[in-house]
Amino acid sequence: MGATPNGRHAYEPIDHGANPHPGFRKDGALTAMSNSICAIQPGYGNTAPVQLELDPGMGRGEEAVKKIADYILTLFQQGGTLLNINIIDSRQILEADKDPDKYPDLVVRVTGFTAYFCSLTPEFRKLVVDRILVQGGA
Predict the structure, then answer these.
(1) SS in 3 state form for 95-125?
(2) Over the stretch 118-129, which tens digit does the pLDDT of each residue have?
(3) 8 Å CB contact between 16 and 131
């Protein structure tokens, strides 16, 4: 497929799911993204999962945990059917990408499946790394 208006270059893979291409929204816009994905759910199945990358620091404190829990509940109340969450910081994912064998237990959500990061091809690792770096603000 040719280039698309969201900055994806010609012949690059189309995004991994219903989420916007990494970097499409500079402000993150988690709520807008989630509302859009929930609006297209057909009512059954896991056809449009939400992929969410969280920095481990985001869950510190009771207020932060409550906000994450409220987000998850709201997502499903609005019709979401599947939420994939990776909790990893940008430093760790860059180190794992550089030397995957140092992180044999690192499990990540890829494109509709979960896998050990070290078992992924360089192309799939790049999809995961790019998504985490963009969503994590790195």
Answers:
(1) HHHHCHHHCCCCEEECCCCEEEHHHCCHHHH
(2) 999 998 898 888
(3) yes
